[in-house]
Amino acid sequence: MTKNSTLNLSNSLDLFQYGEALGHGELHVKMDPASGLRAIVAIHNTNLGPALGGCRLYDYDTTEAAIFDAMRLARGMSYKASISNLNLGGGKSVIIKPKGAFDRVALFEAFGKFIDELGGRYITAVDSGVTIDDMDVIQRHTPYVATTSSHSEGGGDPSYSTALGVFQGMRAAAKLKLNRDNLAGLHVVIQGAGHVGYPLAKHLHEAGARLTVCDISAASTQRCADEFGATVVAPNDIFTVPGDIFAPCALGAILNDQSIGQLSTKIIAGSANNQLAEARHGAVLMQKGILYIPDYVINAGGLIEAAAMYQNDHPELVRQKVLALYDSVHEIAKQALATHTDPAEVADAIAAARIYGASPLAAAA
Ligand code: NAD
Protein backbone atom coordinates (compact mmCIF):
# COMPACT_ATOMS: atom_id res chain seq x y z
CA MET A 1 0.00 0.00 0.00
CA THR A 2 1.40 3.35 -0.82
CA LYS A 3 -0.31 5.74 1.58
CA ASN A 4 -0.26 3.36 4.58
CA SER A 5 3.42 3.63 5.03
CA THR A 6 3.50 7.41 4.69
CA LEU A 7 1.34 7.92 7.80
CA ASN A 8 3.09 9.00 10.93
CA LEU A 9 2.49 6.14 13.33
CA SER A 10 3.63 7.73 16.57
CA ASN A 11 2.27 6.59 19.94
CA SER A 12 0.43 9.87 20.34
CA LEU A 13 -1.54 9.42 17.12
CA ASP A 14 -5.28 9.59 17.72
CA LEU A 15 -6.92 6.35 16.64
CA PHE A 16 -9.91 8.11 15.09
CA GLN A 17 -7.55 10.34 13.14
CA TYR A 18 -5.62 7.27 11.99
CA GLY A 19 -8.81 5.38 11.14
CA GLU A 20 -10.18 8.29 9.14
CA ALA A 21 -6.94 8.64 7.23
CA LEU A 22 -7.15 4.97 6.25
CA GLY A 23 -10.86 5.19 5.39
CA HIS A 24 -11.84 2.91 8.30
CA GLY A 25 -15.33 1.92 9.30
CA GLU A 26 -15.38 -0.04 12.56
CA LEU A 27 -13.28 -1.12 15.48
CA HIS A 28 -14.45 -3.78 17.96
CA VAL A 29 -12.72 -4.60 21.22
CA LYS A 30 -13.35 -7.57 23.53
CA MET A 31 -12.08 -8.49 26.97
CA ASP A 32 -12.75 -11.80 28.68
CA PRO A 33 -10.94 -11.92 32.04
CA ALA A 34 -11.71 -15.64 32.56
CA SER A 35 -9.67 -16.72 29.52
CA GLY A 36 -7.36 -13.70 29.36
CA LEU A 37 -8.73 -12.71 25.96
CA ARG A 38 -7.92 -9.20 24.82
CA ALA A 39 -8.90 -8.99 21.18
CA ILE A 40 -9.46 -6.35 18.53
CA VAL A 41 -11.36 -6.69 15.28
CA ALA A 42 -10.83 -3.91 12.75
CA ILE A 43 -13.31 -3.77 9.89
CA HIS A 44 -12.02 -1.42 7.25
CA ASN A 45 -14.81 -1.54 4.70
CA THR A 46 -17.73 -3.78 3.75
CA ASN A 47 -18.84 -2.11 0.49
CA LEU A 48 -17.97 -5.23 -1.49
CA GLY A 49 -19.11 -7.80 1.09
CA PRO A 50 -18.32 -9.11 4.59
CA ALA A 51 -14.81 -8.39 5.79
CA LEU A 52 -12.49 -11.40 5.61
CA GLY A 53 -9.03 -11.33 7.13
CA GLY A 54 -6.72 -13.33 9.34
CA CYS A 55 -6.37 -13.42 13.10
CA ARG A 56 -2.95 -12.75 14.61
CA LEU A 57 -1.81 -13.82 18.07
CA TYR A 58 1.11 -11.65 19.00
CA ASP A 59 2.96 -10.34 22.02
CA TYR A 60 2.29 -6.64 21.39
CA ASP A 61 4.22 -4.11 23.50
CA THR A 62 1.21 -1.85 23.88
CA THR A 63 -2.54 -1.97 23.26
CA GLU A 64 -2.14 0.94 20.85
CA ALA A 65 0.34 -1.06 18.78
CA ALA A 66 -2.19 -3.92 18.55
CA ILE A 67 -5.01 -1.60 17.49
CA PHE A 68 -2.93 0.19 14.87
CA ASP A 69 -1.66 -3.13 13.51
CA ALA A 70 -5.22 -4.45 13.14
CA MET A 71 -6.35 -1.26 11.38
CA ARG A 72 -3.36 -1.13 9.02
CA LEU A 73 -3.73 -4.79 8.09
CA ALA A 74 -7.52 -4.53 7.66
CA ARG A 75 -7.10 -1.79 5.09
CA GLY A 76 -4.64 -3.97 3.23
CA MET A 77 -7.23 -6.75 3.13
CA SER A 78 -9.83 -4.43 1.59
CA TYR A 79 -7.43 -3.59 -1.20
CA LYS A 80 -6.33 -7.19 -1.69
CA ALA A 81 -9.93 -8.45 -1.93
CA SER A 82 -10.84 -5.64 -4.30
CA ILE A 83 -7.92 -6.10 -6.69
CA SER A 84 -8.65 -9.85 -6.75
CA ASN A 85 -12.26 -9.18 -7.82
CA LEU A 86 -13.62 -10.82 -4.68
CA ASN A 87 -16.91 -9.65 -3.21
CA LEU A 88 -15.37 -9.22 0.21
CA GLY A 89 -14.45 -6.37 2.45
CA GLY A 90 -11.30 -5.97 4.50
CA GLY A 91 -10.91 -6.88 8.13
CA LYS A 92 -8.29 -8.19 10.51
CA SER A 93 -8.23 -9.33 14.10
CA VAL A 94 -5.48 -9.42 16.65
CA ILE A 95 -5.32 -11.18 19.97
CA ILE A 96 -2.84 -9.74 22.44
CA LYS A 97 -0.92 -12.77 23.67
CA PRO A 98 -1.53 -13.20 27.41
CA LYS A 99 1.54 -12.86 29.63
CA GLY A 100 2.70 -16.17 31.10
CA ALA A 101 0.89 -19.49 30.82
CA PHE A 102 -2.63 -19.50 29.40
CA ASP A 103 -5.30 -21.96 28.29
CA ARG A 104 -5.15 -21.76 24.50
CA VAL A 105 -8.43 -23.58 23.93
CA ALA A 106 -10.30 -21.29 26.35
CA LEU A 107 -8.73 -18.25 24.67
CA PHE A 108 -9.89 -19.25 21.19
CA GLU A 109 -13.30 -20.33 22.47
CA ALA A 110 -13.80 -16.83 23.89
CA PHE A 111 -12.52 -15.36 20.62
CA GLY A 112 -14.96 -17.52 18.63
CA LYS A 113 -17.87 -16.18 20.71
CA PHE A 114 -16.64 -12.62 20.05
CA ILE A 115 -16.55 -13.24 16.28
CA ASP A 116 -20.05 -14.70 16.43
CA GLU A 117 -21.35 -11.58 18.19
CA LEU A 118 -20.32 -9.55 15.14
CA GLY A 119 -22.99 -11.43 13.20
CA GLY A 120 -20.98 -12.19 10.06
CA ARG A 121 -19.68 -8.70 9.34
CA TYR A 122 -16.20 -10.15 9.89
CA ILE A 123 -14.97 -13.63 8.91
CA THR A 124 -11.74 -14.74 10.56
CA ALA A 125 -8.94 -16.95 9.19
CA VAL A 126 -5.50 -18.24 10.08
CA ASP A 127 -2.54 -15.81 10.32
CA SER A 128 0.72 -15.37 12.23
CA GLY A 129 0.88 -17.13 15.57
CA VAL A 130 -2.39 -18.96 14.96
CA THR A 131 -2.96 -22.53 13.78
CA ILE A 132 -5.61 -24.48 11.93
CA ASP A 133 -6.36 -26.20 15.28
CA ASP A 134 -7.18 -22.77 16.72
CA MET A 135 -9.53 -22.16 13.78
CA ASP A 136 -11.25 -25.45 14.59
CA VAL A 137 -11.81 -24.26 18.18
CA ILE A 138 -13.27 -20.98 16.90
CA GLN A 139 -15.61 -22.97 14.64
CA ARG A 140 -17.28 -24.53 17.70
CA HIS A 141 -18.78 -21.12 18.43
CA THR A 142 -19.28 -19.41 15.10
CA PRO A 143 -19.74 -20.20 11.41
CA TYR A 144 -17.82 -17.02 10.51
CA VAL A 145 -14.42 -18.69 10.18
CA ALA A 146 -12.46 -19.82 7.13
CA THR A 147 -9.36 -22.07 6.94
CA THR A 148 -10.54 -24.72 9.40
CA SER A 149 -9.43 -28.32 8.88
CA SER A 150 -12.91 -29.18 7.60
CA HIS A 151 -12.62 -26.59 4.84
CA SER A 152 -10.07 -28.44 2.75
CA GLU A 153 -8.38 -31.76 2.38
CA GLY A 154 -5.06 -29.95 2.41
CA GLY A 155 -5.61 -29.01 6.05
CA GLY A 156 -6.63 -25.45 5.35
CA ASP A 157 -3.16 -24.25 4.28
CA PRO A 158 -3.58 -21.60 1.55
CA SER A 159 0.17 -21.46 0.73
CA TYR A 160 -0.13 -23.62 -2.39
CA SER A 161 -2.63 -21.23 -3.91
CA THR A 162 -0.41 -18.32 -2.94
CA ALA A 163 2.52 -19.98 -4.74
CA LEU A 164 0.41 -20.69 -7.83
CA GLY A 165 -0.72 -17.06 -7.89
CA VAL A 166 2.86 -15.80 -7.64
CA PHE A 167 3.83 -18.10 -10.49
CA GLN A 168 0.99 -16.69 -12.62
CA GLY A 169 2.02 -13.14 -11.77
CA MET A 170 5.60 -13.91 -12.78
CA ARG A 171 4.38 -15.21 -16.14
CA ALA A 172 2.44 -12.00 -16.75
CA ALA A 173 5.41 -9.85 -15.73
CA ALA A 174 7.79 -11.82 -17.97
CA LYS A 175 5.42 -11.43 -20.89
CA LEU A 176 5.37 -7.65 -20.54
CA LYS A 177 8.89 -6.89 -19.38
CA LEU A 178 10.90 -9.61 -21.11
CA ASN A 179 8.55 -10.39 -24.01
CA ARG A 180 8.54 -14.04 -22.95
CA ASP A 181 5.57 -16.38 -23.34
CA ASN A 182 6.96 -18.80 -20.79
CA LEU A 183 9.59 -18.95 -18.07
CA ALA A 184 11.76 -21.67 -19.61
CA GLY A 185 15.42 -20.81 -19.30
CA LEU A 186 14.84 -17.74 -17.12
CA HIS A 187 16.84 -17.46 -13.92
CA VAL A 188 14.64 -16.91 -10.85
CA VAL A 189 16.24 -15.95 -7.53
CA ILE A 190 14.11 -16.94 -4.51
CA GLN A 191 14.54 -15.55 -1.01
CA GLY A 192 12.91 -18.00 1.40
CA ALA A 193 12.02 -21.61 0.57
CA GLY A 194 9.18 -22.04 3.07
CA HIS A 195 5.45 -22.72 2.69
CA VAL A 196 5.22 -20.50 -0.40
CA GLY A 197 8.82 -20.47 -1.66
CA TYR A 198 9.09 -24.24 -1.96
CA PRO A 199 5.94 -24.89 -4.06
CA LEU A 200 6.81 -21.79 -6.10
CA ALA A 201 10.24 -23.32 -6.82
CA LYS A 202 8.46 -26.51 -7.88
CA HIS A 203 6.23 -24.65 -10.37
CA LEU A 204 9.24 -22.80 -11.75
CA HIS A 205 11.33 -25.95 -12.06
CA GLU A 206 8.49 -27.67 -13.93
CA ALA A 207 8.29 -24.63 -16.21
CA GLY A 208 11.98 -24.99 -17.06
CA ALA A 209 13.32 -22.05 -15.06
CA ARG A 210 16.78 -22.05 -13.48
CA LEU A 211 16.73 -21.42 -9.74
CA THR A 212 18.89 -19.86 -7.07
CA VAL A 213 17.54 -20.01 -3.51
CA CYS A 214 18.51 -18.89 -0.05
CA ASP A 215 17.01 -19.57 3.35
CA ILE A 216 18.21 -19.45 6.93
CA SER A 217 17.13 -23.10 7.11
CA ALA A 218 19.74 -25.34 5.44
CA ALA A 219 17.20 -28.18 5.20
CA SER A 220 14.86 -25.98 3.14
CA THR A 221 17.50 -25.00 0.61
CA GLN A 222 18.91 -28.52 0.42
CA ARG A 223 15.46 -29.80 -0.55
CA CYS A 224 15.35 -27.30 -3.44
CA ALA A 225 18.86 -28.28 -4.51
CA ASP A 226 18.03 -32.00 -4.43
CA GLU A 227 14.61 -31.80 -6.09
CA PHE A 228 14.99 -28.89 -8.49
CA GLY A 229 18.74 -28.58 -9.03
CA ALA A 230 18.66 -25.13 -7.42
CA THR A 231 21.87 -23.27 -6.67
CA VAL A 232 22.07 -22.33 -2.99
CA VAL A 233 23.56 -19.05 -1.77
CA ALA A 234 23.91 -17.50 1.69
CA PRO A 235 21.02 -15.20 2.73
CA ASN A 236 23.29 -12.15 2.71
CA ASP A 237 24.32 -12.79 -0.91
CA ILE A 238 20.85 -13.13 -2.45
CA PHE A 239 20.45 -9.54 -3.67
CA THR A 240 23.65 -9.62 -5.71
CA VAL A 241 22.79 -12.77 -7.67
CA PRO A 242 22.37 -11.77 -11.33
CA GLY A 243 19.08 -13.15 -12.61
CA ASP A 244 15.87 -12.31 -14.46
CA ILE A 245 13.34 -12.36 -11.61
CA PHE A 246 13.79 -11.82 -7.87
CA ALA A 247 11.11 -13.50 -5.73
CA PRO A 248 11.00 -12.31 -2.11
CA CYS A 249 9.23 -15.08 -0.18
CA ALA A 250 10.55 -14.59 3.34
CA LEU A 251 10.46 -11.17 4.97
CA GLY A 252 8.87 -7.74 4.69
CA ALA A 253 10.71 -4.44 4.13
CA ILE A 254 13.49 -6.11 2.13
CA LEU A 255 13.33 -3.62 -0.75
CA ASN A 256 15.29 -0.73 0.71
CA ASP A 257 18.00 1.68 -0.47
CA GLN A 258 20.76 -0.85 0.14
CA SER A 259 19.13 -3.93 -1.43
CA ILE A 260 17.78 -2.00 -4.43
CA GLY A 261 21.32 -0.77 -5.06
CA GLN A 262 22.48 -4.39 -5.24
CA LEU A 263 19.64 -5.86 -7.32
CA SER A 264 20.10 -6.39 -11.05
CA THR A 265 17.02 -8.46 -11.92
CA LYS A 266 14.46 -6.96 -14.31
CA ILE A 267 11.42 -8.09 -12.31
CA ILE A 268 10.54 -8.42 -8.62
CA ALA A 269 7.63 -10.77 -8.00
CA GLY A 270 7.21 -12.64 -4.73
CA SER A 271 4.84 -13.49 -1.91
CA ALA A 272 6.30 -11.60 1.05
CA ASN A 273 4.01 -8.98 2.56
CA ASN A 274 5.03 -5.31 2.69
CA GLN A 275 8.15 -5.75 0.58
CA LEU A 276 8.81 -2.02 0.10
CA ALA A 277 10.62 -0.63 3.15
CA GLU A 278 9.04 2.76 2.35
CA ALA A 279 6.42 3.73 -0.24
CA ARG A 280 9.01 5.81 -2.14
CA HIS A 281 10.98 2.65 -2.96
CA GLY A 282 8.32 1.77 -5.55
CA ALA A 283 9.36 4.83 -7.54
CA VAL A 284 13.06 4.09 -6.97
CA LEU A 285 12.61 0.62 -8.51
CA MET A 286 10.72 2.06 -11.46
CA GLN A 287 13.49 4.60 -12.12
CA LYS A 288 15.99 1.75 -12.04
CA GLY A 289 14.00 -0.05 -14.75
CA ILE A 290 12.90 -2.87 -12.44
CA LEU A 291 9.26 -3.96 -12.74
CA TYR A 292 7.98 -4.46 -9.19
CA ILE A 293 4.73 -6.42 -8.92
CA PRO A 294 2.88 -5.11 -5.84
CA ASP A 295 2.91 -7.75 -3.12
CA TYR A 296 -0.73 -7.59 -2.19
CA VAL A 297 -1.73 -8.21 -5.80
CA ILE A 298 0.53 -11.15 -6.53
CA ASN A 299 0.17 -12.88 -3.14
CA ALA A 300 -3.65 -12.86 -3.16
CA GLY A 301 -3.92 -16.60 -3.94
CA GLY A 302 -4.10 -17.38 -0.23
CA LEU A 303 -7.01 -15.00 0.30
CA ILE A 304 -8.77 -16.36 -2.78
CA GLU A 305 -8.37 -19.88 -1.40
CA ALA A 306 -9.55 -18.89 2.09
CA ALA A 307 -12.63 -17.17 0.67
CA ALA A 308 -13.38 -20.15 -1.54
CA MET A 309 -13.04 -22.61 1.34
CA TYR A 310 -15.48 -20.53 3.33
CA GLN A 311 -17.99 -20.54 0.47
CA ASN A 312 -17.40 -24.25 -0.24
CA ASP A 313 -16.46 -23.46 -3.83
CA HIS A 314 -15.46 -26.33 -6.07
CA PRO A 315 -11.64 -26.72 -6.15
CA GLU A 316 -11.58 -26.16 -9.90
CA LEU A 317 -13.34 -22.81 -9.48
CA VAL A 318 -10.75 -21.83 -6.87
CA ARG A 319 -7.97 -22.78 -9.24
CA GLN A 320 -9.50 -20.70 -12.02
CA LYS A 321 -9.72 -17.68 -9.71
CA VAL A 322 -6.08 -18.07 -8.70
CA LEU A 323 -5.00 -18.51 -12.33
CA ALA A 324 -6.82 -15.25 -13.09
CA LEU A 325 -4.16 -13.42 -11.06
CA TYR A 326 -2.27 -13.50 -14.36
CA ASP A 327 -4.80 -10.99 -15.72
CA SER A 328 -4.73 -8.73 -12.64
CA VAL A 329 -0.94 -8.53 -12.69
CA HIS A 330 -0.88 -8.07 -16.47
CA GLU A 331 -3.32 -5.15 -16.31
CA ILE A 332 -1.44 -3.37 -13.54
CA ALA A 333 2.01 -3.91 -15.06
CA LYS A 334 0.79 -2.84 -18.48
CA GLN A 335 -0.66 0.41 -17.15
CA ALA A 336 2.43 1.08 -15.04
CA LEU A 337 4.84 0.52 -17.91
CA ALA A 338 2.73 2.54 -20.37
CA THR A 339 2.38 5.54 -18.07
CA HIS A 340 5.72 5.21 -16.29
CA THR A 341 3.86 5.05 -12.96
CA ASP A 342 4.80 3.11 -9.84
CA PRO A 343 2.82 -0.19 -10.14
CA ALA A 344 1.84 0.08 -6.47
CA GLU A 345 0.07 3.35 -7.23
CA VAL A 346 -1.68 1.83 -10.24
CA ALA A 347 -2.84 -1.12 -8.13
CA ASP A 348 -4.09 1.12 -5.31
CA ALA A 349 -6.08 3.24 -7.76
CA ILE A 350 -7.75 0.21 -9.39
CA ALA A 351 -8.56 -1.35 -6.00
CA ALA A 352 -9.92 1.92 -4.57
CA ALA A 353 -12.11 2.50 -7.63
CA ARG A 354 -13.79 -0.87 -7.10
CA ILE A 355 -14.31 -0.26 -3.37
CA TYR A 356 -15.44 3.34 -3.45
CA GLY A 357 -16.62 3.90 -7.00
CA ALA A 358 -16.39 7.58 -7.76
CA SER A 359 -16.80 8.75 -4.16
CA PRO A 360 -14.32 11.31 -2.78
CA LEU A 361 -12.85 8.60 -0.56
CA ALA A 362 -11.35 6.98 -3.64
CA ALA A 363 -9.08 9.94 -4.05
CA ALA A 364 -8.15 9.98 -0.37
CA ALA A 365 -7.37 6.26 -0.19
P1 NAD B 1 7.34 -19.49 5.92
O1 NAD B 1 7.68 -19.07 7.31
O2 NAD B 1 6.82 -20.86 5.68
O3 NAD B 1 8.60 -19.31 4.95
C1 NAD B 1 9.49 -18.24 5.06
C2 NAD B 1 10.87 -18.83 4.85
O4 NAD B 1 11.80 -17.75 4.88
C3 NAD B 1 11.28 -19.80 5.95
O5 NAD B 1 11.74 -21.00 5.35
C4 NAD B 1 12.39 -19.07 6.69
O6 NAD B 1 13.39 -19.95 7.20
C5 NAD B 1 12.94 -18.18 5.60
N1 NAD B 1 13.68 -17.01 6.08
C6 NAD B 1 13.49 -16.30 7.21
N2 NAD B 1 14.39 -15.30 7.29
C7 NAD B 1 15.14 -15.38 6.17
C8 NAD B 1 16.21 -14.63 5.66
N3 NAD B 1 16.74 -13.59 6.34
N4 NAD B 1 16.75 -14.97 4.47
C9 NAD B 1 16.26 -16.04 3.79
N5 NAD B 1 15.24 -16.80 4.22
C10 NAD B 1 14.69 -16.46 5.40
O7 NAD B 1 6.32 -18.37 5.38
P2 NAD B 1 5.41 -18.48 4.07
O8 NAD B 1 4.05 -18.91 4.47
O9 NAD B 1 6.17 -19.23 3.03
O10 NAD B 1 5.30 -16.95 3.68
C11 NAD B 1 6.38 -16.27 3.09
C12 NAD B 1 6.02 -14.81 2.95
O11 NAD B 1 4.84 -14.68 2.15
C13 NAD B 1 5.70 -14.12 4.26
O12 NAD B 1 6.09 -12.76 4.19
C14 NAD B 1 4.18 -14.19 4.33
O13 NAD B 1 3.63 -13.14 5.12
C15 NAD B 1 3.82 -13.99 2.88
N6 NAD B 1 2.51 -14.55 2.51
C16 NAD B 1 2.25 -15.85 2.70
C17 NAD B 1 1.02 -16.37 2.31
C18 NAD B 1 0.71 -17.83 2.48
O14 NAD B 1 -0.29 -18.29 1.93
N7 NAD B 1 1.52 -18.57 3.21
C19 NAD B 1 0.04 -15.53 1.75
C20 NAD B 1 0.35 -14.17 1.56
C21 NAD B 1 1.59 -13.69 1.94
List how many beta strands DSSP finds: 11
N- to C-terminal distance:
10 Å
SSE order in H/E notation? HEEEHEHEHHEHEHEEHEHEHHHHHH
Secondary structure class reads alpha/beta
Q: What fold name goes in the CATH topology slot of the largest domain? A: Rossmann fold
Q: What is the second-level CATH architecture of the largest domain?
A: 3-Layer(aba) Sandwich
Shape: globular
Bound molecules: nicotinamide-adenine-dinucleotide
DSSP helix fraction: 40-55%
Uncertain segments: 1-8, 359-365
Instruction: Provide the domain count.
Output: 2
The count of helical stretches stands at 15
Over all CA atoms, what is the radius of gyration? Answer: 20 Å
- Give the strand order of the largest sheet, numbering strands 1, 2, ... along the chain: 8-7-6-9-10-11
- Fraction in beta strands: 15-25%
The averaged pLDDT comes out at: 92
Write the layout of secondary structure elements.
Blueprint lengths: L14 H8 L3 E7 L4 E9 L5 E8 L4 H21 L5 E8 L7 H14 L4 E5 L5 H8 L19 H20 L8 E5 L5 H10 L3 E5 L3 H11 L2 E2 L12 E4 L8 H6 L4 E2 L11 H8 L3 E2 L2 H4 L2 H10 L4 H9 L1 H15 L3 H14 L3 H5 L1
The protein binds nicotinamide-adenine-dinucleotide (NAD).
Nicotinamide-adenine-dinucleotide binds next to helix 5.
